[in-house]
Amino acid sequence: MSEKFMEAMRQADALTPAEQMRLISHLIQQLSRCEIKRKQSRKLTEFIGIAPNHLGGMDAREYISRMRRGEFPDRELELRESKKEA
Hints:
By secondary structure, the chain is an all-alpha fold. The protein folds into 2 domains: 3-32, no CATH class; 56-86, no CATH class. Helix content is 58%, strand content 0%. The protein has helices at residues 3-14, 17-32, 60-68, 73-85.
């Protein structure tokens, strides 16, 4: 938060409840005259396929199970990828 905002908050805290209500009313009136642009929402389906398949077709449960057993499926996946590139 900006220093200006923090100072306004400190000053608002020092006001009486009646003054705080008048300040709130004033701010609401000011904001009602403003056009607030909303951030464009995105559909989840827009993100399908943007990340590469990091598991190289391996089932996620199998990957986790192998990691827990102390195996290194990452190295196996790296070998698969290097063979594809060659």
